[in-house]
């Protein structure tokens, strides 16, 4: 032990006199490590009055530090008795900082010493706010290692316990409302910690405790699990005495697994199972007591646990326990066995053999299995899918799975029956078939063709067509359940044959063209077209005219199943639809018109003929107002006809590439027919054309000006708001388009409510309107203010929703930052005029969005710093922007130290203890260092005040600069 000197009264008084400031107190006591100071400090009453939580007028709370306790942390190992005596006599407080120190002290003491702090630690657990709580698991482990298991159990109980759902009263009121009962009124007990902390507590504390004191820990966890299930039940369920806990849903896997659990209650159950396993493995004298304990609990999860334990340890469990569970079950012929029950039977049969059940008892169970499942029960379950064939498949699967459970003790007759069923269905997986999904062997299911591409290539065309039309044996590979032989797999294999053989031979392709109507499943037609697209990627365009004729033939077919979803593809093979190959034609045309494909211009007419059909054919979803995506544009571009309109515009640019002055009569004739004739443009198609107005404008300005009000019709507000919202969100605006959209911007300012109704989580339409108007202001389409200023009108019309102002101010900052170091002088002057206008209005929340203005290199540093100072006078900076602002100040520090220090001091002076503001240490320290060492007295004072405020807020990393 180090030799310490006892301080004189004079030294103590002198030291305490120099620590009146909070910063000095923290520094002194955090560095003091001499245990001989305990007595003089205690005599002066420094350990008697722990600070309480401070409640602020705005509802926030402050948790004051107690530097004196940091000293006790430093000397706990050297003077444990004195420290323990002081801690245990402290008055109770509501300040979690104090208890955080006590927890640290407990970890620093020997286990036999620190358990004396248990009463104070329990006070910590009871607080609604806790600091350093992730160390509780470490402390329990520390005590377990020291043999203090009893006290560890006392501390563990309140730590792992669950509390009532804080919204119980609200949910109880709503549980009888229509549609709410099963979803929104379900009670969710909570823990004292968040999910991660709770799991760490169980892992670091409870699991080690379970290994040392398994049965006592099992009792503790059983009580915890019982309470949590009870707390999840509403009053009516409790009165009815129901035992169902639905644990198969929230705890499907009883074994501990890697990663974070979905529910804290799932981890609690899994830790109980872990503890029970410790009893069976290391404390077999307590197995009887454990089983009795689990049986006393009424909830189904405890029965699952017992069955699982019997299956894991069939030789250690009492054989009568297992036998009784098997014989008491009465539903062998009706329902599949659940996982734990099946697991128990299978393993017990393997371990105990014929000792488990008498021949007569076993035969009665087997007979019940062979009689099931009841036909009417299966019919009700299958509904419209019930057929005799499906029932027979279900019956064989049911019997195989149930018989397999008892396989180790079946007689010769029943073994023969099981083997016969296996011959038809295959052998079950080595793991129980009723295994919960969280325990099933994971992995993606691969879709496999019944014949490989090479095997299909050996067929002649007629044989190949016959095979495609006749094959329908969709099934899983018996050797590998992750392989499924299905039509998707066959599609891909057939597509390979088309790419490698059929499409490279005009003669062979002609066969498929001639026999197009004989292909029963249109999904294989889609394979042919997809193969065309793949070959076109490789510039294999030799037979493309022949391919286009094939596409016209495909488009001549119409759906024979109304409303079939074209996205289902092979999954919809029993309800064949031509929408899938039509979509493939649309994708093929879109690809042909890409620049890199270099489609010969001689194909102009056949290409247009295909596009014309695509653009004018019916479309179930578009024509029946089925919005299958979140927005109108998303609906249009995910339907074949909508995509075709985009390809039509691309076709116009393809033609102009070859004939610069072509009138594009065919393109505009289709667009005009869609505006005036059937099929009329659907709402999603209005939106799609609206977003491409700038591209149509590039093809013919006069046509676009004449028809813009038909594409975005103001007389139909529902169509208008979706179409114009699409322009705002996705359209490309430039100064020339202002004349086209001016009336629509004016109309939008009068219909902000309708625009706001459009659901778009990523980009608010009204905000985007403001951004458009700001850009038109920069392009001098109108003045900043005045009667003709649409930008000023935007601010007037959003005066009741000023968050719009903040969002636009922030957007301008982002735009400036992205503009680089140079922009035109005229635009720069308009930006500065905009700033001064907003500064004059003086809405603080808006101006606090200056973060990215400060970073904009196109604005001079002096201007940015000067304006930033003005904004900081409005008070607290924006919480999530100030760290970026400090980073920018750091970048400007070298050339503008005086301005930077003034700004930084203004930032720190506005910070509050209740707000968590994050600064990077390596960005703040250089600012303080430059300021504190400055020859400019004002700059030094800024730095000193900033440092003082940071230290008062607990940022001691800035104590020594």
Which helices and strands, and how do they pair?
Blueprint: H1 9-17, H2 22-31, H3 38-43, E1 54-55, E2 61-62, H4 67-75, H5 80-88, H6 96-108, H7 111-114, H8 118-126, H9 136-145, H10 149-160, E3 162-163, H11 168-174, E4 190-191, H12 195-212, H13 214-231, H14 235-240, H15 247-250, H16 264-282, H17 287-296, H18 300-312, H19 319-328, H20 339-352, H21 359-371, H22 375-382, H23 388-405, H24 412-425, E5 446-448, H25 453-457, H26 461-470, E6 475-476, E7 483-485, H27 487-500, H28 506-514, H29 522-537, H30 544-555, H31 579-592, H32 604-616, H33 620-623, H34 632-637, H35 640-658, H36 665-676, H37 683-691, H38 693-699, H39 701-711, H40 717-730, H41 738-749, H42 752-756, H43 765-778, H44 790-797, H45 803-818, H46 825-841, H47 844-847, H48 851-855, H49 861-872, H50 882-892, H51 897-909, H52 921-932, H53 937-952
Parallel strand pairs: 5-7
Antiparallel strand pairs: 1-2, 3-4, 6-7
Tell me what the structure shows.
With 961 residues, the chain is mostly helical. It contains 53 helices and 7 strands. Strand 1 (54-55) and strand 2 form a beta hairpin. Helix 18 (300-312) packs parallel to helix 20, helix 27 (487-500) crosses helix 29 (522-537) and helix 31 (579-592) runs parallel beside helix 35 (640-658). Residues 178-182, 430-443 and 560-573 have low confidence and may be disordered.
**Spans where pLDDT lies below 50 across 5 or more residues:** 178-182, 430-443, 560-573
> Structural class of the helix and strand makeup?
mainly alpha
Total helical segments: 53
Task: Please tell me how large the radius of gyration is.
Answer: 38 Å
Helix content: 55-70%
Number of strands: 7
């Amino acid at each position: 032990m180090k030799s310490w000197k006892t301080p004189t009264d004079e030294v103590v008084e002198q030291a305490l006199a120099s620590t009146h400031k909070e910063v000095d107190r923290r520094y002194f006591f955090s560095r003091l490590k001499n245990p001989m100071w305990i007595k003089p400090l205690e005599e002066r009453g420094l350990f008697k009055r722990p600070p309480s939580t401070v409640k602020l007028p705005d509802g926030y709370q402050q948790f004051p530090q107690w530097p004196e306790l940091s000293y006790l942390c430093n000397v706990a190992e050297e003077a444990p008795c004195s420290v323990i005596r002081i801690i245990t006599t402290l008055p109770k407080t509501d300040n979690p900082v104090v208890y955080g120190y006590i927890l640290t002290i407990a970890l620093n003491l020997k286990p036999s010493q620190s358990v004396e702090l248990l009463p104070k630690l329990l006070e910590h657990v009871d607080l609604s706010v806790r600091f350093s709580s992730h160390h509780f698991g470490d402390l329990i482990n520390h005590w377990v290692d020291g043999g203090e298991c009893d006290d560890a159990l006392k501390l563990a109980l309140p730590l792992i316990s669950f509390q009532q759902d804080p919204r119980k009263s609200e949910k109880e009121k709503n549980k009888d409302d229509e549609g709410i009962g099963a979803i929104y009124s379900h009670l969710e007990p909570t823990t004292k910690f968040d999910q991660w902390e709770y799991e760490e507590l169980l892992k670091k504390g409870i699991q080690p405790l379970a290994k040392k004191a398994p049965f006592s820990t099992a009792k503790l966890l059983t009580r915890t699990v019982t309470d949590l299930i009870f707390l999840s039940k509403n009053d009516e369920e409790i009165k009815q005495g129901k035992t169902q806990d639905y644990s198969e849903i929230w705890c499907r896997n009883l074994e501990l697994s890697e990663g974070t659990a979905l529910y804290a209650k799932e981890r609690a159950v899994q830790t109980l199972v872990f503890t029970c396993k410790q009893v069976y493995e290391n404390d077999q004298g307590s197995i009887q007591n454990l089983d009795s304990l689990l049986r006393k609990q009424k909830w189904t999860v405890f029965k699952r646990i017992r069955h699982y334990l019997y299956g894991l340890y069939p030789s250690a469990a009492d054989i009568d326990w297992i036998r009784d569970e098997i014989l008491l079950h009465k539903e062998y012929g009706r329902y599949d066995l659940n996982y734990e029950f099946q697991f128990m039977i299978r393993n017990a049969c393997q371990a105990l053999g014929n000792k488990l059940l008498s021949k007569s008892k076993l035969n009665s169970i087997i007979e019940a299995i062979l009689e099931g499942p009841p036909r009417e029960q299966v019919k009700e379950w299958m509904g419209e899918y019930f057929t005799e064939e499906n029932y027979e498949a279900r019956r064989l699967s049911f019997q195989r799975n149930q018989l397999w459970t008892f396989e180790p003790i079946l007689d010769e007759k029943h073994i023969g029956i099981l083997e016969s069923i296996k011959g038809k269905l295959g052998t079950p997986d080595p793991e129980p078939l009723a295994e919960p999904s969280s325990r099933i062997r994971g992995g993606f299911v691969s879709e496999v063709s019944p014949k490989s591409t090479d095997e299909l290539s050996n067929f002649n065309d007629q044989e190949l067509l016959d095979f495609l039309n006749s094959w329908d044996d969709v099934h899983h590979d018996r050797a590998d359940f992750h392989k499924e032989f299905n039509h998707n797999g066959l599609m891909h294999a057939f597509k390979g044959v088309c790419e490698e053989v059929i499409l490279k031979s005009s003669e062979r392709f002609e066969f498929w063209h001639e026999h197009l109507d004989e292909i029963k499943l249109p999904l294989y037609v889609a394979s042919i077209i997809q193969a065309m697209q793949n070959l076109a990627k490789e510039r294999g365009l030799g037979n493309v005219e022949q391919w286009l004729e094939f596409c016209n033939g495909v488009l001549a077919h119409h759906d024979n199943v109304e409303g079939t979803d074209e996205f289902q593809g092979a999954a919809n093979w029993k309800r064949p639809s031509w929408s899938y190959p039509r979509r493939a034609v649309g994708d093929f045309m879109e690809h042909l018109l890409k620049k890199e494909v270099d489609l010969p211009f001689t194909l102009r007419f056949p290409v247009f003929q295909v596009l014309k059909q695509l653009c004018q054919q019916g479309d179930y979803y578009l024509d029946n107002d089925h919005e299958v995506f979140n927005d109108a544009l998303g609906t249009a571009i995910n339907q074949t006809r909508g995509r075709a309109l985009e390809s039509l515009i691309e076709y116009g640019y393809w033609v102009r590439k070859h004939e610069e002055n072509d009138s594009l009569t065919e393109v505009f004739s289709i667009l005009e027919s869609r505006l005036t004739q059937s099929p009329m443009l659907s709402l999603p198609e209005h939106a799609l054309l609206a977003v491409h107005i700038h591209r149509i404008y590039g093809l013919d300005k006069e046509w676009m000006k004449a028809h813009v009000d038909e594409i975005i019709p103001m007389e139909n507000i529902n169509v208008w708001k979706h179409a114009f919202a699409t322009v705002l969100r996705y359209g490309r605006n430039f100064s020339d388009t202002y004349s086209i959209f001016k009336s629509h911007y004016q109309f939008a300012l009068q219909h902000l409510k309708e625009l706001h109704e459009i659901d778009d989580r990523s980009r608010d339409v009204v905000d985007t309107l403001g951004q458009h108007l700001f850009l038109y202001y920069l392009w001098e389409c109108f003045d900043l203010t005045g009667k003709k200023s649409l930008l000023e009108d935007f601010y007037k019309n959003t005066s009741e929703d000023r968050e719009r102002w903040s969002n636009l101010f922030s957007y301008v900052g982002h735009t400036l930052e992205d503009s680089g170091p140079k922009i035109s002088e005229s635009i720069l002057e308009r930006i500065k005029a905009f700033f001064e206008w907003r500064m004059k209005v003086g809405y603080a929340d808006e101006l606090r969005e200056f973060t990215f203005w400060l970073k904009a290199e196109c604005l001079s540093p002096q201007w940015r710093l000067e304006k930033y100072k003005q904004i900081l006078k409005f008070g607290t900076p924006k919480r999530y922007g100030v760290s970026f602002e400090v980073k920018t100040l750091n970048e400007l520090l070298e050339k503008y130290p005086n301005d930077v220090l003034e700004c930084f001091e203004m930032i720190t002076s506005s910070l509050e203890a209740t707000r968590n503001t994050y600064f990077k240490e390596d960005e703040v320290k250089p600012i303080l260092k430059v300021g504190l060492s400055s020859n400019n007295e004002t700059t030094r004072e800024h730095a000193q005040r900033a440092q003082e405020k940071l230290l008062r807020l607990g940022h001691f990393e800035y104590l020594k600069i």
